[in-house]
């Protein structure tokens, strides 16, 4: 039986990869995407350049009320011990509406470095960004209005140890399937050649 890794190695069309992932249970989709190494995630990000456009309906569906937590389970390619490569991007639609999402990063490192708040926005209007993905997770911005009750206190990414991780960072997202997203990390305008895959609950 084919696996996600085989689809990527054979450079199958992204629509075929997406259909395969959407045919899996959440647990199986998470297991297969989180098993990808750096090279496989890089290739998946490249293949996803030909995917349907990622929208906020994929990240924070309108069927979920505003200020309700939506969890995306992630696995990154940073040179860290295994448990620290697993994380969650927790997002919500703001009460004020609009094309944006608020969120932060939850995981083993959060008590150590902070929540890494962000605002996700469309990239259209910025030609240099559009080619990287239709939505950017922008750590230059943090929410300026209410977030989900119970979330950590919103702090700027220039405060505390999180400045060494999140300050000056942007993650560009591409769609893989209805619930799977692939991201590439940038520091300023420089590609870090590190990636992460997300699976929405």
List its traits.
alpha+beta; 8 strands
Topology:
Blueprint: H1 4-9, H2 14-22, H3 26-34, H4 38-47, H5 56-59, E1 70-76, H6 82-85, E2 86-92, E3 101-107, H7 110-113, E4 118-122, H8 127-130, E5 135-138, E6 169-175, E7 180-187, E8 190-200
Antiparallel strand pairs: 1-2, 1-8, 2-3, 3-4, 4-5, 5-6, 6-7, 7-8
* H/E element order: HHHHHEHEEHEHEEEE
Radius of gyration, rounded? 16 Å
Name the helicity range.
Answer: 10-25%
How many angstroms does the end-to-end distance come to? 25 Å
Main sheet record: 8 strands, antiparallel, barrel
Task: Catalogue the unreliable spans.
Answer: none
Strand order of the largest sheet: 1-2-3-4-5-6-7-8
Decide which structural class fits the backbone.
Answer: alpha+beta
Quantity of strands, as a count: 8
Q: List the total number of helices.
A: 8
The whole-number mean of residue pLDDT values reads: 94
- DSSP strand content: 25-35%
Oligomer state equals single chain
- Count of individual domains: 1
Shape summary: globular
Descriptive report:
The protein has 201 residues and is of the alpha+beta class. The two termini are 25 Å apart. Strands 1-2-3-4-5-6-7-8 form an eight-stranded antiparallel β-barrel. It contains eight helices and eight strands; from the N terminus they run H-H-H-H-H-E-H-E-E-H-E-H-E-E-E-E. The mean pLDDT is 94. It has one domain (4-200). It is globular and about 45 Å long. The protein has helices at residues 4-9, 14-22, 26-34, 38-47, 56-59, 82-85, 110-113, 127-130; strands at 70-76, 86-92, 101-107, 118-122, 135-138, 169-175, 180-187, 190-200.
């Amino acid at each position: 039986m084919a696996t996600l890794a085989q689809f990527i190695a054979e450079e199958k069309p992204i629509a075929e990869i997406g259909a395969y992932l959407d045919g899996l249970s959440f647990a199986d989709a998470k297991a297969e995407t989180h098993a990808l190494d750096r090279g496989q995630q890089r290739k998946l990000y490249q293949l996803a350049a030909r995917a349907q456009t990622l929208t906020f309906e994929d990240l924070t569906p309108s069927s979920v009320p505003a200020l309700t937590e939506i969890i995306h389970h992630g696995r990154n390619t940073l040179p860290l011990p295994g448990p620290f490569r697993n994380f969650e991007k927790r997002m919500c639609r703001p009460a004020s509406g609009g094309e944006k999402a608020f969120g932060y990063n939850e995981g083993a490192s959060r008590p150590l470095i902070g929540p890494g708040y962000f605002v996700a926005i469309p990239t259209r209007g910025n030609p240099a960004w559009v080619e990287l993905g239709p939505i950017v997770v922008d750590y230059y911005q943090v929410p300026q209005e209410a977030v989900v009750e119970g979330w950590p206190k919103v702090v700027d990414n220039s405060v505390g140890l999180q400045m060494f991780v999140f300050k000056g960072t942007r993650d560009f997202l591409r769609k893989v399937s209805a619930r799977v997203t692939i991201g590439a990390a940038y520091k300023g305008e420089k590609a870090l050649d590190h990636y992460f895959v997300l699976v929405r609950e």
